[in-house]
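[09:14] KT: can someone run the structure on this one? pasting the chain below
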Amino acid sequence: MQIGPREITTPYRPIPLEVPEGMKPNEFFNSTENLNDLEHNNGLLRNPEGLLLYRKALGHSNLFDCSIIYNTSRTILDPLGRPVRRTQVPEAVKNVWNRMNQIIFAYMLETFPDPDRHLVLAGEASLDATWPLSAPGVPSIRMIHNHFIVFDKRELAQAPLADPDNPNLTDGGQHSLFQAHMREVYRRFFDGLELKILRPCEAGACRIGLTGYPQGLPSWEVQGGAEALKEVRFWREYDMILMGFLDFYRTFFGQVSTRNSPMPKDVYFPHLVEERLLFDNDFLKTAKMVRDRCLHDARYAHAIRWQPAFKQLVYRNDRGQLIVTISQNSIGNAITELLGVVVRRVPDAEGYARAEPALLEHLFAVRRRLVEADCGEAMATPQWGTD
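[09:31] RB: done, structure tokens below
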């Protein structure tokens, strides 16, 4: 069987919403107004912390697919003031959110136990720097949310190969700025983190055999597997990976922006930044290369995400191990594409209707577990009740 990224087709039921005149579709679908549809037609569970579990109307997979959004649309009207990554979420909210993540991931592993048959993943992304602010259709929703997805590997194997030059697939591999020019600096910096549950993967050990992805990303094995996700320590280390990434990203693009700029304010690991970045010739040489290009290439400079942009996820590899990885999201790729899965969504009400009953049964089962664990209250919609 040929190894390479796959492009699958996922049917969805067309959303019966009218886009206001003068708005781009993605502007509207990322707007606060559209949250009314998300909540009232697709909402499954909500809690006092503002976390909303919902069915993905435009999903990646119709086998299992749902999300949790930290819905601050009514409490923080300024989109630029909303939390867009885990480090900005209040601790009391994060505590509940982590428990919800653990419960849903455990359900996916229990229900789809065979790594040869199913690809299981969950993760989140930043929304603050994925698009240039002057680009048409810049999302205004700006609220952190994560994804829980299961793919059938037999369907992936039967799917056509994706175009390897698809820019969304090159984000974390050999084409990435970090990997192409600062690979060793990047890894040495992460090696300085004090991790006990997360252990760096050996080269190539974390890839999905069918797709050959992820490519070139720093990855860590979760020692203890699913049981480790029940430990507070795991989620602290999951956050440490993100905090290390944020320090690296902010420090690098600070040097790109201003030669010999001081250490960014409020870095999480100042000693690592000082010792492994600001005194590293390869790191500073690469910053100079990017800075020089920005001065002469307007298109290149416009495409840079000056603030940290990333995708972070935990997934099950072919050996059944749980893996954590993080990507420099310089392009705006979907979270599935880090693992070599390109999703082409097509409007097909009949096709979606065939998959919907089984999908909803899974989502209702997850919801019951969350309610039992006091993670929220079930929501009713015109399509389903609260049982």
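[09:33] KT: thanks! The two ends are 44 Å apart (CA to CA).
[09:34] RB: yep, looked fine to me
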